[in-house]
């Protein structure tokens, strides 16, 4: 392997050559595919004759021509990654090349490959170079046509971006289609599909009255399962018009569902989706699956404006499109479901996954400074923290100000490839805003930790909040600066009501915080310094502060609230997010204290006040049921591990299990009532009310099933057998599967028997088993690897069975090293097939230094074994070597 090269943002240079037009012609074959490309090249620099460097990987060059003249050896250099035209003519010219590729041998899921017999593509980030020689970078934008020629009976459907302008039959049982995309685009948005599929058809009439033809393509037997996806697509199109004034811009929108795909991809007018993110029926998909489809169909649709019409200058700017589009899909899902419940899930993801990334060797800013493989940076930091950064603009500017900023962004940059600063500037300029050092959110990695102490002065009737903030060092960034953090704050009085807020003393000035002359109940404190104080005036009694309402910034907040304060907020805060948060803080404190009991082999105990707090939430009929389900769910083991000096998976697991079981035992009657009251025999409906009801019932069932109790086993089995939809059936199965034994084995066998014909359901069955905490589970996973339904080439199966295994902290981190050994072996096997998937798995090792010495040595040995493997991919190399550093 050539020494992997690190690429730096600071080295960005404009391309010397632009491409204006690209005409592609594919002759698709079973043995090989021929790709002809004709590119209109425009030289950016007058009279320059700098070499034109084209990217190309796994391509067999047949010929290359400039202005119709075939180039001879000496006119170009060819290596395993590039075709370099040494002295192209000055001025504009036509470049033509012909290559051969082998899609049926391509297991990387990038470039042109075969999925279940059909041809499809995935070009983001750098897959287009596996199709033809090209300047594979997003700031090269061109207008494309694409002609596809293939066997008609095998591939009756031929699709590419834009509009179909010609089609017809050819000799030898072949046919062809020509597509033309009127919008210029970077090559990562190119797509082609040649397949045996059928479509669900619908139409959407845009706000200006244009009729758009909508098609969702799947194998014919799956068409009934596309109803939900079509509903989501139309809802997304309408929402983007209503909320952002963005109208769809072509007459056709295709979504193709394939079983093998990295996830979902926003190719212009030809989205390609993993079938898991398209197909759903009540019997086969859970509420979580339905919700994921809503979010992702929305996400890829919203990319049409944030990503496609305005794209990224270079891959360091990935969050420009991903953070913004995730923010948009979060807002979409909130508007269609419950805002609080969505906010809780999204904030949890930040705190569990993103903070963990920040604390490890792969910590990087929302806009990374360097990478070896950009594929390794499709991360929770770029996506989810990036979305939080966008959310902060909205928090600071309000809905209207944010909309003005978005409008200006589109107005300025439609058709361009731009940077995160351009987005920042649009927000600032549209609002004449003072954003202080807000840009640091893009460049500084790590989680800000904010400490708050409060004090009340009865005489002066003032209430003070003192903030201090730090950001821990991350690789390559030893010294950090203070960030700009909007802290949404309310003051709660002793009756549980919000106090009216009118002015705050800060930085030597008394500032009014009223809105239109009226007092407000939540104000946004702008914390920008290492240390600073805010003093509320006219505060008639000692309040309890409700801080960081709605999780107004992606930070870790440490306040001096007492347990009593927290119980009070849990019961009364008008900000539902903070009610949930208060319960979680209490639960974490409680679990944390029990970890030490466990480590000292003391008996574990459960604080009765906590049980009471949970009970009050359970019985509060004024609360939303999905909220209750979330509020009674204990923080995950990972969150607790993050609080410990030395991660101790055994202790954390034992403590969480103990508290869960103890709560189940003390609140058994309440949980039983919840199960009974929230059953429904009616037809499955995907709406908030019904989802919330199912969530609450199934959460209660999960608690009950932790008890050793014949009667409960009967109940759970009854729920399993009487379920009429997958949400209920699968929840009951998961409840039964908590404990090893015959009931578990029988239920798992029964479930497989019932669903073996449906791959997507079988994946859930794999994941349930692989993520199980039952002792010594790794040997079951080895067995499942050779199960007839498993296939290392299919990403969904790999995520379910192997990715799922990482979900069980006790088993993955087993002290005998069996979990590490398993993952290390599989990652290397997978690396030969699909480096992107392999490096995803390897990241599970990245926090190895958090563990005790025994585990450290075992994990380190796996990483060392990887980096010393011959032929290791750059993807895995980057993660493994950075983890060892
Ligand atoms: N742009 C796609 C999305 O966010 C994801 C592409 C993933 N590509 C990759 N190489 N991981 O919807
Ligand atoms: Zn995206």
Automatic annotation (TrEMBL):
Coiled-coil stretches: none
Full protein name: Puromycin-sensitive aminopeptidase
Native species: Tagetes erecta (African marigold)
Stretches assigned to the Aminopeptidase N-like N-terminal domain: 23-189
Domain of life: Eukaryota
Recorded GO MF terms: alanyl aminopeptidase activity; metallopeptidase activity; zinc ion binding
Occurrences of domain Peptidase M1 membrane alanine aminopeptidase (ranges): 233-438
Keyword Mitochondrion: no
Database matches in Gene3D superfamilies: 2.60.40.1840, 3.30.2010.30, Neutral Protease Domain 2, Peptidase M1, alanyl aminopeptidase, C-terminal domain, tricorn interacting facor f3 domain
Keyword Cytoplasm recorded: no
An example Gene Ontology biological process: proteolysis
Family: Belongs to the peptidase M1 family.
CC cofactor: Zn(2+)
InterPro entries the record matches: Aminopeptidase_N-like_N (IPR045357), Aminopeptidase_N-like_N_sf (IPR042097), PepN_Ig-like_sf (IPR038438), Peptidase_M1 (IPR001930), Peptidase_M1_dom (IPR014782), Peptidase_M1_pepN (IPR012779), Peptidase_M1_pepN_C (IPR024601), Peptidase_M1_pepN_C_sf (IPR037144)
Domain Peptidase M1 alanyl aminopeptidase Ig-like fold: 446-559
Entry's Gene Ontology cellular component terms: chloroplast
Enzyme Commission code(s) on record: 3.4.11.14
Location of the Peptidase M1 alanyl aminopeptidase C-terminal domain: 563-885
Alphabetized UniProt keyword annotations: Aminopeptidase, Hydrolase, Metal-binding, Metalloprotease, Protease, Zinc
Catalytic activity: Release of an N-terminal amino acid, preferentially alanine, from a wide range of peptides, amides and arylamides
Pfam families, A to Z: DUF3458 (PF11940), DUF3458_C (PF17432), Peptidase_M1 (PF01433), Peptidase_M1_N (PF17900)
Record-linked NCBIfam families: pepN_proteo (TIGR02414)
């Amino acid at each position: 392997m050539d020494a992997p090269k690190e690429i730096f943002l600071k080295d960005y240079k404009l391309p010397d050559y632009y491409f204006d037009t690209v005409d592609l012609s594919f002759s698709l074959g079973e043995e090989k595919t021929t790709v002809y490309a004709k590119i209109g090249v425009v030289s950016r620099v007058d009279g320059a004759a700098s070499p034109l460097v084209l990217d190309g990987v796994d391509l067999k060059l047949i010929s290359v021509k400039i202005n119709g003249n075939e180039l001879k050896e000496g006119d170009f250099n060819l290596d395993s990654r590039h075709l370099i035209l040494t002295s192209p003519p000055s001025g504009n010219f036509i470049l033509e090349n012909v290559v051969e590729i082998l899609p049926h041998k391509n297991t990387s899921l990038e470039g042109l490959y075969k999925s279940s017999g059909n041809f499809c593509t995935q070009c983001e980030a750098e897959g287009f170079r596996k199709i033809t020689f090209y300047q594979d970078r997003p700031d090269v934008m061109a207008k494309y046509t694409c002609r596809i020629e293939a066997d008609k009976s095998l591939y009756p459907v031929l699709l590419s971006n834009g509009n179909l302008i010609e089609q017809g039959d050819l000799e030898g049982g072949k046919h062809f289609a020509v597509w033309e995309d009127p919008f210029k685009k970077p090559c990562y948005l190119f797509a082609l599909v040649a397949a045996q599929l059928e479509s669900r058809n619908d139409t959407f009439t845009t706000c200006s009255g244009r009729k758009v033809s909508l098609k969702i393509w799947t194998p014919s037997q799956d068409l009934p399962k596309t109803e939900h996806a079509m509903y989501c697509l139309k809802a997304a199109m309408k929402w983007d018009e209503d909320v952002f004034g963005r109208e769809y811009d072509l007459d056709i929108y295709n979504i193709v569902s394939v079983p093998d795909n990295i996830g979902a991809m926003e190719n212009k007018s030809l989205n390609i989706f993993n079938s898991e993110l398209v197909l759903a029926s009540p019997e086969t998909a859970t509420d979580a699956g339905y919700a994921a489809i809503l979010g992702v169909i929305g996400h890829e649709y919203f990319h049409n404006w944030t990503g496609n019409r305005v794209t990224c200058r270079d891959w360091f700017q990935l969050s420009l499109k991903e953070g913004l589009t995730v923010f948009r899909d979060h807002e979409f899902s909130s508007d269609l479901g419950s805002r609080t419940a969505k906010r809780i899930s999204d904030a949890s993801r930040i705190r569990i996954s993103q903070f963990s990334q920040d604390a490890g060797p792969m910590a990087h800013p929302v806009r990374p400074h360097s990478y070896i493989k950009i594929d390794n940076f499709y991360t929770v930091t770029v996506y989810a923290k990036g979305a939080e950064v966008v959310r902060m603009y909205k928090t600071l500017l309000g809905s209207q100000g944010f909309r003005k900023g978005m409008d200006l962004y589109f107005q300025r940059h439609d058709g361009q490839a731009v940077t995160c600063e351009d987005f920042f500037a649009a927000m600032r300029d549209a609002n004449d805003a003072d954003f202080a050092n807000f840009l640091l959110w893009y460049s500084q990695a790590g989680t800000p930790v904010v400490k708050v102490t409060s004090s009340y002065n009865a005489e002066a009737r003032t209430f003070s909040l003192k903030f201090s903030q730090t950001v821990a060092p991350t690789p390559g960034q030893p010294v950090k600066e203070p960030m700009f953090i909007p802290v949404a704050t309310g003051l709660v009085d002793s009756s549980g009501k919000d106090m009216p807020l009118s002015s705050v003393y800060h930085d030597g000035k008394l500032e009014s915080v009223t809105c239109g002359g009226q007092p407000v109940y939540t104000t946004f404190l702008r914390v920008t310094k290492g240390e600073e104080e805010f003093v509320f005036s006219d505060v008639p009694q000692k309040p309890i502060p409700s801080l960081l309402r709605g999780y107004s910034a992606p930070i870790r907040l440490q306040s001096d609230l007492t347990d009593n304060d927290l119980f009070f907020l849990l019961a009364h805060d008008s900000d539902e997010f903070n009610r949930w948060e208060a319960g979680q803080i209490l639960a974490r404190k409680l679990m944390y204290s029990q970890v030490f009991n466990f480590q000292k082999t003391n008996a574990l105990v459960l604080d009765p006040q906590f049980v009471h707090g949970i009970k009050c939430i359970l019985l509060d009929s004024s609360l939303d049921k999905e909220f209750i389900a979330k509020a009674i769910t204990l923080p995950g083991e990972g969150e607790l591990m993050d609080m410990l000096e030395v991660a101790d998976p055994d202790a954390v697991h034992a403590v969480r299990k103990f508290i869960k079981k103890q709560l189940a035992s003390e609140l058994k009657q309440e949980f039983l009532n919840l199960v009974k009251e929230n059953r429904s025999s009616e037809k499955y409906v995907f709406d908030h009310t019904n989802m919330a009801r199912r969530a609450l019932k199934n959460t209660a069932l999960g608690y009950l099933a932790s008890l050793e109790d014949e009667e409960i086993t009967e109940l759970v089995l009854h729920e399993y057998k009487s379920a009429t939809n997958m949400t209920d059936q699968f929840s009951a199965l998961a409840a039964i599967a908590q404990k090893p034994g015959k009931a578990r084995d029988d239920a798992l066998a029964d479930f497989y028997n019932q669903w073996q014909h449906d791959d997507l359901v079988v994946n859930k069955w794999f994941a349930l088993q692989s993520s199980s905490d039952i002792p010594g589970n790794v040997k079951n996973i080895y067995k499942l690897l050779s199960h007839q339904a498993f296939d290392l080439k299919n990403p969904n199966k790999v995520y379910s069975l192997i990715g799922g295994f990482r979900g069980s902290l006790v088993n993955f981190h087993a002290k005998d090293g069996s979990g590490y050994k398993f993952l290390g072996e599989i990652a290397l096997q997978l690396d030969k097939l699909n480096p992107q998937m392999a490096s995803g798995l390897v990241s599970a090792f990245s926090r190895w230094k958090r563990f005790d010495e025994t585990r450290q040595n075992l994990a380190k040995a796996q990483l060392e074994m990887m980096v010393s493997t011959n032929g290791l991919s750059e993807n895995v190399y980057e993660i493994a070597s950075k983890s060892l550093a």
